[in-house]
Structures are given as structure tokens and as C-alpha cells.
Amino acid sequence: MNTIATRLADVQQRIHDAAIKYGRLDKTIQLLAVSKTRPAENIRAALGAGQHCFGESYLQEAVEKIQQLSDAQVQWHFIGRIQSNKTKVIAEHFDWVHGLCSFKHAQRLNDQRPGNLSPLNVCLQINLSNETSKAGIAPEEATELAHLVHNLPRLRLKGLMTLPAPTETLEQQRQPFQALRELRDKIKTHELPLETLSMGMSGDLEAAIAEGATIIRVGTAIFGPRNYKK
């Protein structure tokens, strides 16, 4: 029976197999279950199978699920596009933000992060292919923004994220992930290690692992075909 638990196990096996193939350790690769548009009971099913990190994009829907699952141990990641009028809710409810693209939003998240919570973990989103339809900063802007964000006390800059255009072959898939890894290696310092590379989804997670991904964002392969939000 193709349940959430069995699909989750299949994804974990893919991660394990890719880690072995490319000389990685399983423990260095975190699986983020992308639960946007999925009901809370789907998340509970994944929780029951041992998954505790979930990614959400639609803020109102996410907050409702966070409240419904307040009794569970869940690490919540905001993976949607950040808007200024939503930073307060993001700062109050999430543990991670993957799509930080501006210092303005960084300042707002920092100022609005409640003092009783640990600093908000953030990744800078890099638009490697210069796609106008996607958020993210250009690679040449990353160093300056990284150092500005690093100095904000209520944020903890963890690394970089990218969402590349779909491609067909493994080698084509690896190219943008390699570019993100090389950008990280260029920017990082002893004070700013940037250990996180958030990259790779259901269709290209092997390529991402080959190039050093530390967080894989997987939705469809765990929860099945998505009912797209209107």
C-alpha cells in the first residue's frame, strides 16, 4: 500500500543510496518534507513515520496547521516568497526561513523575532539562472548581504538556497547545485561557515546530494501528487 509512511521510507532510501554513491554521510543530509497544500492529518502521518521537519509556503494555511499540531514536536521551515507585510507572522511562528532575498526583510524578521525564541535560522536564496519569475538575489550580491545578515542578532545565517530550472539529465541537474556550492565556498569564512546548502527536490535530489546538499526539500515523492492551491 502506497502510504505516506512507505513513500517517506522510499525517499529516505534514495537519500541513503545517493549518500553512499557520492561519499556522503546520511546524517549530513536533512530531509525537509514540503507540506504546503497538505492537510494536518498528512503531516501527522509523516510525524508518525519519524519525520519532524516540514516546509510551508502559504502563510495563513501554515499558521493554521502550526496551531493544529501544537502538541507535536515539529520544526517549521518557511519556504515561500517573503513579503514585508508577512514578516511578523513568519518571525513568530517558524524555525527556519529559506528564501531571504533582501536586507529590508532581514531587518524586519530580526526586529520582529520574539525574545523568548531562539534566533531565526535563515538561508539566502540565490537566483543562479537569472529567472525573472523566481525570487532570489544574483550571485554577485551574496557576499554583501551575507555579512549584513550575519550582524543581525536575532537571525542566524545558516547558508544558501536555490531553486533551479528543471533539466533532464543528472549532469545538467548537477550544474546549478555545483554553482551554489562554489559560491558558498567563495563567501564562507571562519566566522561565517555557511554550512547549509538547501537544494534539491523530488526529481533531482541525487544530483543535489552529489554536489553537497545538506537540506533536501521533498513534497510530491512523500505526499503524492499535489492539489494545487487556487
Main attributes?
230 residues; single chain; eight-stranded parallel beta sheet; TIM Barrel; alpha/beta
**Radius of gyration, Cα only, in angstroms?**
17 Å
The CATH topology: TIM Barrel
Largest sheet: 8 strands, parallel
| Oligomeric state of this protein | single chain
Proportion in β-strands: 15-25%
Number of β-strand runs: 8
> Which bin fits the share of residues in helices?
25-40%
How far the N terminus sits from the C terminus, by CA atoms, comes to 30 Å
Name the CATH homologous superfamily: Alanine racemase
CATH domain class name: Alpha Beta
Count up the domains.
Answer: 1
Can you give the mean pLDDT? 95
Structural class: alpha/beta
CATH architecture level-2 label: Alpha-Beta Barrel
Enumerate the strands of the largest sheet in spatial order, edge to edge or round the barrel: 7-6-5-4-3-2-1-8
Protein architecture, described:
The protein has a single domain (4-223), classed as Alanine racemase (TIM Barrel). The model has no long low-confidence stretch (mean pLDDT 95). The chain contains nine helices and eight strands. The chain has helices at 4-21, 40-48, 59-68, 87-93, 103-112, 142-150, 170-187, 205-210, 220-223, and strands at 30-34, 53-56, 75-78, 96-100, 120-125, 155-161, 196-198, 215-218. The chain has 230 residues and is of the alpha/beta class. The chain has an eight-stranded parallel sheet with strand order 7-6-5-4-3-2-1-8. Helix content is 40%, strand content 17%. The radius of gyration is 17 Å and the shape is globular.
